[in-house]
Specification:
heterodimer, A: mainly beta, five-stranded mixed β-sheet, 4 helices, B: mainly beta, four-stranded antiparallel β-sheet
């Protein structure tokens, strides 16, 4: 470990000494936050691949966070239980556990959960979503193998507020109120939101007899709703920032569909989650050093209820999980000489989960888990030429969890060429520590495996970017090839219908191409994202060896076209997924799916807007089936997809 | 003409060369989807495993084999969904068509544990409800015509009743039921019940047998019942675990083995007895380890006569002596009379033993099968087909019929019949040529 650190420092010193003298007026990434150009200067966020999604551009379309993320190339949304159900992300073929999610700098991933459930995060207060792939900047503590989703909530720009009410198919109702004002020396923001749905869409059910179409029936999805509420309070001035958030997610856990959703079949279980998070931070300058600290506290209560014992019949009627986490972060940046911009970040976190319920009293599970982790990152943006057009950005990280730590590193290179072209490349080594359940099990049905190794991997990407004029329009495009090789993947293996264990049993190879392009031409706007990806399970002597990984579609793309008029704008959005396997034996595929959404936005006046539209115009979602490879029947999806959805939203700014 | 004879000869050779002997089902690591496959033996006994013969199964299934109303071999895949009748797919293995099964559901069958046949009727028993259904197999219709529901005073005492196993012996059906209450992992069991039913599912007689009885085997006019003796334990065994012999004529029960009477180093529950013709009997005994993931146990080899005398014989194989070291959930034995092999579900893999060998298994692992094993069964022979190279048994003896997910112990290559037909054609063709 010491040798590697020494070698790294040697490389850095050599780089520094070999550099030509930099012009004093070279602007290095990190020194500005927002560009005044039509397109935001993404190089200020990361020298690697990053996409920014701005929810306000789709305001009123009642898109949830997973819907917004579907337009990011390289990112695949896994809606295991349909819209509003448990939803996670895979970035460039990663597992969902490998994707780190931050909300205003606070890590949302908990040691007691496999991954971040994106359907529980409200979008009404989100200003922007940054998705980092490949190179992960030092300000994010995790050496995230799968990338980072950074959610930034709204900042106060002017006093006033906004009220939005909406309705859509299947009992969905949505209401949001936000208000901001000056308070003392700073700005205060408040956001209140409520979003609910019955999710009782119709679909054809094969009655669990896929070879007997005569007994198929039209079913309405039962016990498939959700009710989400949240409050966000923020105050900040030039130095201080305080944040308090509360959210409650009540979710109906529908049973698998085939043969269900009819009288007499039990409905399913319920999962209610309530979370409070508090943050306090301060930023200041000390000479050339710009630094800050932040302390965060999170308290989450999760209740699982299965009064009819419908899930597995194991006798788990009620379980409750209480999680509390403290973490402290210090970070800073400074310009060093003419060619260096250093950034550092240190973080300490302590988490505890207490468990009560049948899993303890009946199954003899573990009732307390703790986890302690800390990390250190150091990043240097180095201008390699006098003009500052050639940058090298190495980063080195130390991550430790429960006494075991590992180094990881990354390096990004970017070169600006003429006429708006630029080249970008990045590579590095990444890792993920096992979480609490993976290591200790639950003492009941998840068996412990304290010998689990960290997941590790290498990844590399190379991209060509263009910003300027193309085909007569303002254009920004990026074409990126990526490759990654994760090892020691931690996977859950069920050794019986009841018991399972997490094991390091998988290696993989993933490569692909991302294309992201946006055009602005007079009153037309178009945004395109396409991902092609090949994934292969490289685990030796295993039935999955050489097979495609599940939930890594070979093709995924989204095209959105908007036409603006005076007070009206109309838009169309198409989304396509193809060649997506559901199982790790590559025997079950999802029907290829293309959905088309249409809508319009009409501004009665500057502060009052009506947005109406329909998602999945052709109602393709419910027709998606599980398609076997070989001799087997096409079957109803275990969790069918919601189809044609009409919506209307009225928004008033005051 | 030469080409035609050659082609016919080739087909003739191939028709005797290979036939599917064993069917299995596997599941992925998450128990969400599965497939079925076949193990085929050639004339030299070399096994070939074909995975993904049937795809698109759900995550919980079993495979069985039986003879239909015409005595022809059939393979059944039964898929379980909680609170619903099992989805059943029935295949004719001789056709090689695994894409178009007969699909049925029987309203009273959920979580099937065994099938048996008498003439044109099939009888099935399931775990979720203590029922036996009678199904008419005439013309491949497989329609439920009757059902029997096991009732007991134990229900009033809070016990839940479950079907466990079923076999046909003579003109009667024998159905095994258990009674449990409480919650995992501390279930409390009452004595199990063996119910003798006539072909119309009327109760003829019954007998109490050991607690948590899981398997039955019929041999030489007697029924052998294996019982775990209580709740399945992890890292321990039930002292009350036993193998009992039941006389179907009188339903008298004789205890042959009991765990508490075994030597001091005994650490197993009795799980199953399998008979190999008139010669050997094999006993599977074991228990799940404390880690709840591995099964520690032994296969003992004894004789049919010795087993009645309560002699367990010698240790034949150790269940942990496989490449997966005893890992997995499914543990049972089937005897394949055609291959003369013990075909065992050994956790995640299939272990095939030579009954006269040293207990070393030929393994078929997850990689070959395309997933983790959930069931395995020997494909029964057509009842009216002469088995090739079959040595006639010296005395008329009922063919042992292993229960649960296994089919009959005797099986032969259905293609043998076609091969004989082809043989008959050749001289005809030769004569026609001569006459040209």
């Amino acid at each position: 470990m010491k040798v590697r650190a020494l070698l790294f420092h040697l490389v850095v010193v050599c780089l520094i000494s070999a550099l030509p003298a930099c012009a004093a007026d070279v602007t290095l990434p990190g020194e500005e936050v927002v560009s005044s150009a039509e397109y935001e200067d993404l190089s200020l966020l990361s020298p690697g691949t990053v996409t920014v999604v701005k929810p306000e551009e789709m305001d009123g379309e009642q898109k949830n966070l997973p819907d917004l993320l579907k337009r990011v190339p390289g990112l695949h949304i896994i809606e295991a239980r349909g819209r509003g159900g448990y939803t996670v992300a895979s970035v460039r073929g990663s597992t969902s556990s490998q994707v780190a999610v931050y909300i205003d700098g606070v890590l949302a991933n908990l040691g007691s959960e496999a991954a971040v459930d994106l359907s529980t995060i409200s979008v009404s207060d989100i200003q922007r979503i940054e998705v980092y792939r490949g190179y992960i900047p030092a300000r994010f503590g995790k050496a995230a193998l799968g990338g980072v989703i950074n959610i930034v909530t709204k900042k106060v720009e002017k006093a006033g507020g906004s009220l939005s009410v909406g309705a859509s198919s299947y009992g969905q109702r949505q209401a949001s109120l936000s208000w901001s004002t000056q308070l003392f020396s700073g700005d205060f923001y408040m956001g209140l939101n409520h979003d609910r749905s019955n999710g009782d869409f119709e679909y054809w059910n094969d009655n669990n007899t896929p070879y007997t179409p005569g007994d198929d029936y039209k079913a309405g999805r039962q016990h498939n709703g959700y009710r989400n509420s949240d409050i966000l309070l923020k105050w900040g001035d030039a130095n201080w920032e305080a944040r308090a958030a509360w959210k409650k997610n009540e979710r109906d856990l529908a049973v698998a569909a085939p043969g269900a959703d009819k009288p007499g079949v039990p409905e399913g279980a319920d999962l209610d989650t309530e979370q409070i998070s508090l943050s306090l931070g301060r930023r200041q300058k000390a000479g050339i050093l710009d630094w800050g600290w932040q302390v965060n506290y999170l308290d989450q209560n999760k209740k699982y209820d299965d009064p009819d014992n419908t899930v597995g019949g194991w006798g788990e009627y009620h379980n409750e999980y209480d999680t509390r986490r403290w973490d402290f972060t210090i970070d800073g940046s400074m310009r060093l000489g003419d060619c260096h911009f250093l950034e550092f970040m240190g973080n300490y976190a302590r988490e505890r989960m207490d468990v009560t319920g049948d899993i303890i009293t009946t199954l003899g599970g573990i009732d307390k888990f703790t986890q302690e982790s800390w990390s250190l990152q150091l990043q240097d943006s180095i201008a390699l030429d006098a003009a500052g057009s050639f940058l090298a950005v190495p980063v080195i990280r130390w991550n430790e969890q429960d006494g075991e730590g590992k180094f990881s590193w990354g390096l990004a290179l970017s070169k600006e060429l003429k006429n708006g072209w630029s080249l970008h490349a990045s590579g590095g080594k990444y890792n993920r520590a096992p979480n609490m359940y993976e290591l200790y099990g639950d003492g009941a049905t998840v068996r412990p495996n304290p010998d689990l190794n960290w997941e590790e991997g290498m990844q590399f990407d190379f991209g060509v970017h263009k910003e300027g004029r193309m085909f007569g329009a303002n254009n920004r495009s990026a074409l990126t090839f990526f490759w990654k090789k994760p090892e020691n993947l931690i996977e859950y293996v069920m050794t019986s219908p009841r018991f399972g264990i997490y094991q390091n049993i998988a290696d993989a190879k993933i490569y692909g191409v991302e294309l992201e392009s946006s055009f602005i031409w007079q009153k037309w706007e178009a945004a395109l994202s396409v991902t092609w990806m090949e994934s292969e399970n490289k685990t030796e002597d295993d039935y999955r060896q050489g097979l495609t990984l599940p939930n890594r579609p070979e093709w995924e793309g989204l095209l959105r076209v908007t036409r603006k008029f005076d007070k009206l704008s109309v838009f169309a959005e198409g989304h396509y997924i193809a060649d997506n396997y559901f199982d790790d034996a590559a025997t079950i595929k999802m029907d290829d799916l293309f959905t088309l959404g249409l809508g319009f936005k009409y501004a009665f006046h500057e502060n009052l807007r009506l947005i109406m539209g329909v998602d999945d115009v052709f109602d393709e979602g419910p027709d998606v089936k599980r398609v076997p490879v070989g001799n087997g029947p096409t079957r109803t999806m275990w969790y069918p997809l919601q189809g044609r959805t009409f919506y209307a939203t009225l928004t008033w700014d005051f | 003409m030469k080409k035609l004879c050659f082609a016919l000869l080739l087909v003739l050779c191939l028709s005797f060369a290979a036939s599917a002997n064993v069917a299995f089902t596997v599941v992925d690591n998450f128990y969400t989807s599965g497939t079925a496959g076949l193990v085929t033996s050639d004339a030299e006994g070399t096994l070939t495993t074909t995975k993904n013969v049937v795809t698109g199964l759900n995550g919980d299934h079993n495979v069985y084999s039986f003879n239909n109303a015409a005595g022809k071999s059939r393979v059944m895949i039964s898929q379980y969904t909680m609170n619903q009748p099992d989805t059943v797919w029935i295949y004719d293995p001789s056709l090689g068509d695994w894409a178009t099964p007969i699909e049925v559901q029987w309203a009273d069958m959920s979580n099937r544990r065994g099938v048996a046949t008498i003439d044109s009727s099939l009888y099935a028993i399931a775990y979720d409800n203590p029922k036996v259904v009678k199904v008419d197999m005439t013309n491949e219709t497989y329609t439920q015509t009757a059902s029997y529901t096991f009732t007991s005073d134990l229900s009033g005492a809070g016990y839940n009743l479950h079907g466990e196993a079923i076999l046909a012996e003579g003109e009667y059906i024998y159905a095994l039921f258990t009674a449990e209450k409480g919650a995992f992992p501390n279930f409390e069991y009452a004595p199990s019940k063996l119910v003798k039913l006539d072909a119309s599912l009327n109760v003829v007689a019954s007998a109490n047998v050991g607690k948590n009885a899981v398997k039955m085997a019929a041999y030489n006019g007697k029924i052998y019942v294996s019982s775990i003796g209580g709740s399945q334990l992890y890292g321990d065994y039930n002292r009350g675990s036993a193998i009992e012999m039941v006389d179907p004529a009188t339903m008298a029960v004789t205890e042959l083995f009991k765990a508490s009477d075994m030597p001091a180093d005994w650490a197993y529950d009795f799980r199953e007895v399998v008979f190999r013709g008139d010669t050997d009997a094999f006993i599977l005994a074991g228990a799940y380890a404390k880690d709840q993931m591995t099964f520690g146990g032994k296969i003992f080899k004894t004789t049919a006569a010795e087993i009645q005398a309560g002699n367990i014989g010698e240790e034949f194989a150790d269940t942990t002596d496989t490449s997966y070291m005893g890992m997995g959930w499914i543990w049972e034995m089937n005897y394949d009379a055609l291959l003369d092999k013990l075909v065992c579900a050994s956790g995640f893999l299939i272990a095939i033993y030579d009954p006269d060998g040293d207990g070393t298994a030929e393994e078929i692992d997850s990689k070959a099968m395309g997933g983790n094993l959930t069931s395995v069964g020997v494909i029964v022979a057509d009842k009216d087909v002469e088995k090739p190279d079959q040595t006639p048994t010296p005395t008329p003896t009922p063919t042992p019929t292993p229960q649960g997910s296994s089919g009959s112990s005797s099986s032969s290559c259905n293609a043998g019949f076609a091969g004989i037909a082809l043989l008959m054609l050749l001289p005809v063709i030769a004569v026609r040529r001569k006459n040209k």
